[in-house]
Specification:
homodimer, mainly alpha, Arc Repressor Mutant, subunit A, Four Helix Bundle (Hemerythrin (Met), subunit A), DNA-binding
Chain lengths: 232, 232
DNA sequence: GATGTTTATTTGTAGGATAAATGTACTAAT
DNA sequence: ATTAGTACATTTATCCTACAAATAAACATC
């Protein structure tokens, strides 16, 4: 289909550093570099790519940040296992996030905690349940829950999935929830849904109920925070 | 409790670049920089931090990669909206991922697609359903589904959540699934669960059923790929 | 008023110099 | 022969200077 107004294509004007970064990542993956394998030294890379060592170092600096390479003086650089969440960790900051991203993150939590029900039931152990019980019993005696209490309970759930990336992901998302949580406190909204027995109920279901029940309970436990979440 | 073997505390030996990077990120967030605000120029930063301009540039290079700052010649640098997924995008490469990370990612997909049921039912529109119907009807006539077909169907679901970060996340995860999907094909395992009507069933439920039904159907649609997922 | 031209400023790139770290080879002592 | 000590070579880390490229802003020109 021919449109009347042809849009001009953006001209890619990547900096040298960008190009070297891409080249290096391709080079590493396409040549089957594995963690532990050592890379050519900086001057050699610079010469082969016909750029200054500065440019190479700026690109390498990025790869270091992502955990793709590690450098030791004299030993040179070695490939290493990239850290999946290192990059996202640095920008997961509510004070500079857009409203849109914030909303996306909130929805993500809702989706995740709804989605882990099956995992929890498939993987729960007596030890896990005991530890979780200790948490909810302690909280049952309290008048109201702090955000630390929330973190302790939900954190334990993430932990019980046995998925480390998951567990870490939660700690990344926390600052975002704190940020909004504080708003709720300021507005006094929390009082209407702060329910100290809610965590206990979730625990009880996890111990003797079904995944479906758990999901339902989790849904009503979380949705007050996200009252507008389901609207588009 | 005193342990017999005292562990030595890690000594922080961050490079100058690491420290400048952290300092800059703190500076930007704590001083309430918002997208569009302009930063001091490189030489000024270097002078104030008492480091060379090279170090500052290596740190800035990282922030540029994350989308936190943009630079224009002569105009200097301006804060910009960080890209949440830019960092993860570069390391989401199955050929250099650890088995553990791979497993985590697989489980993540399962959790996500189980968790989006509520969103889909809350946000589905007639337009969405029509488009999804076109996809599944097309696929119903096929003998078997390619990975492109899978992507088309599941991608549309992600799209229907109305969560852009989500949708992009899916495109990031795809290479990982491709990687393993190919293994299945090689082993001939796919034949036992390749079901061309499965997508249609999911669509039908989405159109007239309930979120619970949908989740159950999705569960049985996906678990064959992840037969070992629920074991710890 | 729209369009060239100059200028000043800031980033982009290059290249060299020195410091720091450390594996390796060599030497000396026991 | 093993160990301890020393010198050397290599590579990254940092710093410095210089120049190129781009461009916003001011000015000049038509």
């Amino acid at each position: 289909m021919i449109t009347k107004a042809n849009t001009l294509e953006r001209i890619e004007s990547l900096s040298m550093t960008d190009r070297v970064e891409n080249t290096l990542r391709e080079y590493l993956t396409e040549n089957g570099f594995k963690p532990g394998d050592s890379l050519p030294n900086e001057t050699e890379i610079a010469q082969q790519l016909n750029v200054s060592r500065n440019v190479v170092r700026e690109a390498l600096s990025r790869l270091r940040m992502l955990g793709m390479v590690e450098t030791k003086t004299r030993r040179g650089m070695v490939m290493s296992q990239p850290d999946l969440l290192a990059g996202i960790e640095k920008v997961m900051n509510p004070s500079i996030m857009s409203q849109g991203n914030m909303k996306d993150i909130f929805e993500l939590r809702l989706i995740l905690e709804m989605g882990i029900a099956e995992f929890l039931f498939a993987r729960k152990t007596d030890k896990d349940l005991k530890e979780l019980e200790a948490i909810v019993l302690k909280q049952k005696g309290l008048k109201s829950l702090t955000k630390e209490d929330e973190i302790e309970f939900h954190g334990k759930l993430y932990e019980m999935t046995g998925n480390d990336t998951f567990k870490r992901f939660q700690t990344l998302l926390l600052p975002v929830f704190d940020h909004v949580f504080l708003n709720y406190f300021e507005k006094g909204i929390h009082t209407e849904f702060q329910n100290t027995s809610s965590h206990y109920d979730l625990f009880a279901i996890l111990k003797e109920g079904t995944a479906d029940e758990f999901r339902k309970a989790m849904h009503s436990h979380l949705t007050p925070y996200y009252s507008t979440s389901f609207q588009k």
